[in-house]
Amino acid sequence: MNVKAGGRLAWRGSTFDVVMVGALAVILRDESGAELEVSLEELNHGAEPVEPMLRGRVVALIARGDEATSEISAWREAIERIVAAGATYGSKSKVVADEAERLSRQLGRPIGVRTVYRRFQAFQEQGAPGLMDRRAAELRGRAGTGVDPRVVEAINQILGSRSRASTTSKAVVLEQVTRLVRTQFGDEVPLPSRATFYRLFDSADRGRFSFGSAKTRESLALAPDRAFGRRTALRPGEQVQIDTTRLDVMVRIDEATIGRPELTIMLDVATRSILAAVLRPEGTKSMDLVVVLARALVPYARRPDGARETRQLISTAWADEMLIDQARYERLREAQPFIFPETITTDRGRTYLSKHFRGACETLGISLITAAPHTPTDKPHVERTFESIASLFLQYAKGYVGRSVEHRGKDVLNQSEQLLTIGQMQELLEDWIAVEWQNRSHDSLRDPLHPTIALSPNEMCRAFRHVAPELHVPLTRDDFIALLPVVHRRINRYGVTIDHREYDSNRLGEYRRRQSPEKAKQGRWPIRVDPYNLHVVWLEADGEFIPLRWANDVHEMPMLGDVWRHARDEYRQKGPDDAAGRDDLVGAMRGFAARGNDAKAARQRARASAVAADPMNPTSAARGDLEQEATAVAEAVVVEVDEDEAWPHRGGFGFIGEQWDEIRERLEG
Predict the structure, then answer these.
(1) Looking at the structure, do residues 247 and 354 belong to the same domain, yes or no?
(2) pLDDT 10s digits, 156-179
(3) Residues 339 and 455 in one domain
């Protein structure tokens, strides 16, 4: 801004009038009338205009675009012609009238002579910003300047108190504001019209979502009213964040239950690597967090027996169908970097404050940082990772339900037969992390000096290892098993049963049908179980972990695996009324078998005895004795037939012979 003699400026917190502008110094006069001489260089560095709104006008001038620029150019050209005419002819009234007529035609609206004079004077005082139309929306004052400030204060008070309230219409807020103003100030405060109220609501509601999503409104209200701080991670493992959320996808928990599982992930901030991800069918418990910790501290290549077999068994559903070699998935799983977490940031959930999780971290030398209450910004990276998993992976899965009820379709439950099992979703998620997430470029891993270069988590970890090499040693096999949850079972002659699966080992000979020394468990033995390892469990006995393998290997046989897959599909398609349709049949049979025949009266018993004694009755015992005697005689009689004799008169039936006359008479008599 060019300040001339007679103008005003602000310097060192005070306002001065400019008396004279010299070549090296400026004479200023303060509000008390005192004058002082200040060097021109000092004022160039420290003075400010008295009306800072001019800077806003310049910004508004730029924001208005080409239309405003062309209008100002037309005014500038007109003023230049007026100045030139005044310098040439000494009078500019005729030129001002001509320019007003020309501007009216050029701008498409009537421009008066007085308007031209006002713009001419404003241009001399303010420069180009003075040529802007002060009636434009960009130069208007704050909305509602004609409204009593107490009304605006009441609006802000009501909107500020609705951070956790349900979303209502503006009419409800209008009634609340009106009641508050009348209660505090009575009728002395005039209320604006409904339309003005609604404009005030729109102006005061910016960034609050008072009439939008209640969840978004609550999250914004929890954000601190200050600039967000930053903690830069200087190396992998220095800052690790962990959190749990319910997934927006339905899976099959078991053959009779479907639901939305909970996902717990552990994320390294420096490299954005997902160190572990575990699904649980229901509320995540403290021991589940210990399993997450165990999977993060033992890489896939060093996990105990059964991990690879389980992954390959489940992944055949998507690998074999596309004729993909399982070794490709194995290589990408093994390429994931191992990062030991030095510090883990958690929220204040009961599972994260439990003694199991905190005790495991303390034993392993891991520090814990607890986030502030209701402050998700304390662990923003893991929160954002959940959104990325939903958008990049979950929404492609069968059974995706959307992020809220209004995004959920009606056919989710109708697809229950095609839903993935929780075991399939677990292995599919881990494969996706190894294949896609760890090798995908991330916006948060951009080079600050070359923003077009974005690295993947694997590349970022290799860069850290190259510049600052660190030796991160994973846990041993026994350490991994020791962190797994424990179930107690009796060891029978066939082994142990866990989740309807039988596990056995040749080393169980000395433990079969033997009581455990733990009296509190009624003789049951402790068994370590990995929820996502179907093939092996471990018996904890005599200071070691004895592996017990799954005894049923029919799924590995060529034909039986297909048979069971077909049986599972048929079982899932079976309706709930199939068993109910047979209940009455089974009930009738069981009822008769339990009831037996009705008791008989004396006359009925006598009649039954007579019938039983009748030799002509097919079921009579007497007839049975006679038939047995006849059979014995028939076997004893040998009929000799002369070959030269004519056809015997008996027709080949020995029963017609004379030997049977006595028997026939007894039967007929």
Answers:
(1) yes
(2) 888 888 888 888 888 999 999 999
(3) yes
